[in-house]
Design a protein that fits this description.
This protein is an alpha+beta fold. It contains six helices and four strands; from the N terminus they run ααβαβαβααβ. It has one domain: NADH Oxidase. α2 packs antiparallel against α4.
């Protein structure tokens, strides 16, 4: 089977990660795959913030948990040591669509490298707050961005889940 099609069929969302940090080379390869995602009118407008600093990672986890309304002991990133945050310009009509393609590419790339990943929501709500707007300024990011999502990344702790059977009746041909 074609390697890309195989990766698409085998990639699963991972909900238990080892604390070990993936190598920078692999993190950069995952990010590069995101940067090659298709974008409306070829604008390549989404940006990625790679969070490998444990203190910041834990703050994001805590804030994300609070936004989600969970008990503060819950980690919405399931122990993943890396968070890749995808943002897109607020004024770009395709911002969420383009950012979603970036996230999809990164999750497939992670799988192809033997890493686990999961898309975690609530980046939108995070980047409406002053703390996260300040983070952008601190990183030298100018302009108005919205949070699209997080790609939690790391080594899988346990077995990769099996795919659920695909639901029938979801394809229609207009021939």
């Amino acid at each position: 089977m074609n390697e890309v099609l195989k990766a698409i069929k085998e990639r699963r969302s991972i909900r238990k990660f080892k604390p070990d940090m993936p190598g920078r080379k692999d993190i950069d390869a995952v990010i590069e795959a995101g940067l090659y995602a298709a974008s409306g009118k070829g604008t390549q407008s989404p940006i990625i913030i790679a969070v490998t600093n444990k203190e910041l990672r834990d703050k994001i986890s805590h804030d994300n948990c609070k936004i989600g309304g969970w008990d503060e002991s819950f980690d919405p990133f399931y122990g993943a040591p890396v968070i890749l945050i995808v943002l897109a310009p607020e004024d770009n009509f395709n911002n969420v669509r383009d950012g979603s393609l970036v996230l999809g590419n990164m999750m497939l790339a992670a799988h192809s490298l033997g890493l686990g990943s999961i898309w975690v929501n609530r980046a939108y709500e995070e980047f409406l707050t002053d703390d996260y707007r300040k983070l952008l300024v601190d990183l030298g990011i100018t302009g108005k961005y919205i949070g699209v999502g997080h790609c939690a990344l790391g080594f899988i702790d346990g077995e990769t889940p099996k795919a659920a059977p695909r639901k029938p009746g979801r394809v229609f041909y207009a021939e």
